[in-house]
Amino acid sequence: MMTVMTQMPASGQWLTMVGDDLNIALNYVLTDVDGLSSLATVGGNLSIGPDNDSLTTVDGLSSLTTVGYDLNIESNPDLTNVDGLSNLTDVDGDLYLRYNAALTNVDGLSSLTTVGVHLYLQYNDALTDVDGLSSLTDVGGNLYISYNDTLCQDSVDDLVAACTIVGATYTSDNLGTCP
Length: 179
Fold this sequence. Notes:
single chain; mainly beta; Leucine-rich repeat, LRR (right-handed beta-alpha superhelix); seven-stranded parallel sheet
């Protein structure tokens, strides 16, 4: 039997799950990921970067709730926020947010409650606070928040105090002025 499509669905309408890894990297002119608007689950790693030089938004990931292993958002120089991840509740592996020079906040991670292994928040030059991680209750490994030039250390200390961290905590060189 053969099925013939007479009308194509809206962009990304059918893709609700990726069973393994999804890598979005080396796309120098990619500005958004709107084509992934129905994606709810990535069973393996989700990597956004490196070198998506024009990516400014991840709003197209607004349906994403779970990443089965690592979430890596790294080296996206024009990405200013992660607001599109507002429904993400669990990252079962590591969470990496590194080398995103224009990232000013992590408010889009406001629903995130659990990072299964390590949390890395490093080298985000424009990041001023980590208030968006206020729902985070558990980190199953180590927490690394360091080398964020405009991040207020008091904001980091508040997060650490409110969260259960199974491993070690490494916070340093967050050089921002605190209000």
